[in-house]
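1st attempt posting a full record on here, be nice pls
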Amino acid sequence: MDDKFLYQLREQPNTGFVNQLRKKLQQESIAPKQGLGGFIQSILSNKRLLQAAALMAVFAIIITTISPARALVISLLANVGGMAFEVTTDYPGDHDDSEETIWPRVMSVDEALAAFPHSIHLPAGLSSEYVLNDEVQVYVGEDAGPFANTIEFEWLSDTNRVSLRVTDRDPGMAEIVAPDALEEITLDETHPAVLIRGGWDADDQVWSNNDNWIRLRWVMDELTYELAGPDQEQLIAIAQSILK
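the predicted structure (as tokens):
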């Protein structure tokens, strides 16, 4: 006896039931799993989502590992004395050895004043112990690049020196400084100014808040004046003599 009769007696299932069961099995086989696994699976199956996630991960690494980017995140812009500054606790940027060095033209006082494209005021408040150096540094012309239209004077005594820089550079271009480096003062009723202490120590890679060298900056006649020296009160007196 063979088993052919068993196949002959087998009852065929309902066609509608078979079709519904097939559809249900197909839907369950292609539906993504729920929860975290399903979310990850949906991202991996979508190229655009995967690329966006990768870019976000790279950006997060850049922010937390590269110094200039990290400094940008934790810095803030400040307007002090009508001039812009970027205040940060971090390293202001890596030195690029490929940057071009721009050298000034050295002239006598009379030559420098004639070459400089703006009329300026020189101080009258220096004591007789200070002598004006006749070698004035001037940045003019296309070769001066970002330093164009800048002139620098220096007065020397036996123990100290005082320098004056005048430029038509936009005071809205922010200089990077350390926290607590700035102090706003007034030279007179119409001339606010800012005292800047310290600077970046490239050797030790830290901010140096050295009170032995102070800068005093203000804007006058659309030019930015900056005095530098070791004595704050002396710098203020010299600046006030320039205003007269």
